[in-house]
Specification:
Blueprint lengths: L12 H8 L1 H12 L5 H13 L3 E4 L6 H12 L3 E5 L6 H4 L1 E3 L1 H13 L5 H7 L6 E3 L1 H12 L4 E5 L6 H4 L3 H6 L1 E3 L9 E3 L8 E6 L7 H4 L3 E4 L5 H11 L5 H17 L9 H13 L7 H6 L8 H9 L1 H9 L3 H21 L1
Parallel strand pairs: 1-8, 1-9, 2-5, 5-8
Antiparallel strand pairs: 3-4, 6-7
Helix pairs in contact: 1-2, 2-4, 6-7, 12-14, 12-18, 13-17, 13-18
Length: 347
């Protein structure tokens, strides 16, 4: 768990949305983290918040799905639990496992010392103190114990095998998990009321299957790749120190790679663009030459083959950065004009 910052105010996004509407949440997240919601995901996230149902956010890589969850948790200063979908996860990673060694030691010591008869010792080994919670159930237990709503990110959820996806059914429906043999609270861990649940967001890149019983327990949204204008707004909000000329060049280079370099298989997304832009700002660079681009290819390439193909195309990337593009230049001017208007209104 990532604990909230004790020096910052904690904001309940559910209450914020209910009292002031979704635009208030969008403004908070944009101001605090620089993340800008797409219209459809914002609407669906707010429905998820109001209903207590998880949000299933699908879309191609590069649309900013994990960043949406990170931005929400950071902006509202909420406790944050995360589970990365991958092969090999099991019940213990998601829900629970028993501390078998601790249980055995307890039984042996209780019987040998004469403190308890064997039958009673075996019954007591199924107490909460011997239960080790997995990351997801830990979030539900945290809410039940602390009364503070956490955010749970289940990233690339579709990579979980079907048997693991089934572990979430009861949690998402009832807000708790029933644990066989647990000798307290009727064997339940989690929240007492099903409408008081953690804020759970599942992300999926559409590479595998999220099974229908799981989908039926979620509010669904589609996170599409941003338009050129949306991407420019996001880059400007995440790296406001960048001048218009540098922002224009980065957008043109990334756009050229996506559209004109088919040999680059793993196209750079928002995360790569932001990382590149921030690196250039840190080094005080305001012009993208072939040499500069070569020095920073590690922010763009995701594998050896793509890196080699980008190296072969350095001169083309330099020309893309320096060739006038009236569409991109107009978009950047609009973004900076929006900022001027916003600052005037705020003043």
């Amino acid at each position: 768990m990532i604990a909230p910052d004790s020096k910052r105010e904690t904001i309940d996004p559910r209450q914020l949305v209910r009292e002031y509407g979704r635009e208030a949440l969008a403004e908070l997240v944009a101001n605090e983290s620089g993340y800008i919601f797409q219209s459809r995901p914002l609407k669906d996230l707010c429905q998820s918040l109001k209903s207590g149902m998880p949000l299933l956010a699908e879309g191609e890589r590069g649309g900013g799905k994990p960043e949406m969850v990170d931005a929400l948790a950071y902006s509202c200063n909420l406790p944050y639990f995360e589970l990365q979908g991958m092969d090999g996860l099991s019940l213990k990673d998601i829900l629970f496992e028993w501390d078998e060694q601790g249980q055995n030691n307890f039984v042996v010591q209780a019987v040998e010392s004469g403190a308890l008869p064997l039958a009673e010792a075996r019954r007591r080994q199924w107490r909460r103190e011997f239960l080790i919670l997995g990351e997801v159930l830990k979030a539900y237990d945290f809410l039940a114990r602390e009364g503070v709503t956490p955010v749970v990110k289940l990233d690339e959820f579709e990579k979980l095998p079907q048997v693991c996806q089934a572990f979430f059914y009861q949690l998402f429906t009832d807000g708790h998990a029933s644990i066989p043999r647990l000798d307290e609270n009727d064997g339940r861990i989690g929240v007492a009321k099903s409408d008081e649940k953690p804020i759970v967001i599942l992300t999926s890149n559409n590479q595998h299957v999220v099974h229908p019983p799981l989908r039926s327990r979620c509010v669904y949204t589609k996170v599409r790749l941003p338009t050129d204008f949306e991407e420019a707004r996001i880059l400007h909000s995440r790296a406001p120190e960048a001048c218009a000329e540098l922002l224009i060049q980065v957008v043109k280079v990334v756009r050229y790679i996506r559209l004109m370099m088919p040999t680059v298989r793993d196209k750079p997304g928002l995360r790569e663009s932001i990382a590149l832009l921030r690196a250039l700002i840190t080094e005080g660079i305001d012009r993208l030459s072939a040499e500069v681009i070569d020095d920073h290819l590690g922010y763009i390439a995701r594998n050896a083959d793509d890196l080699a193909n980008l190296e072969l195309g350095l001169q083309r990337l330099e020309r893309a950065a320096q060739t006038s593009d009236s569409v991109i230049e107009e978009i950047i001017r609009q973004v900076f004009s929006e900022e001027v208007v916003r600052l005037r209104e705020a003043a």
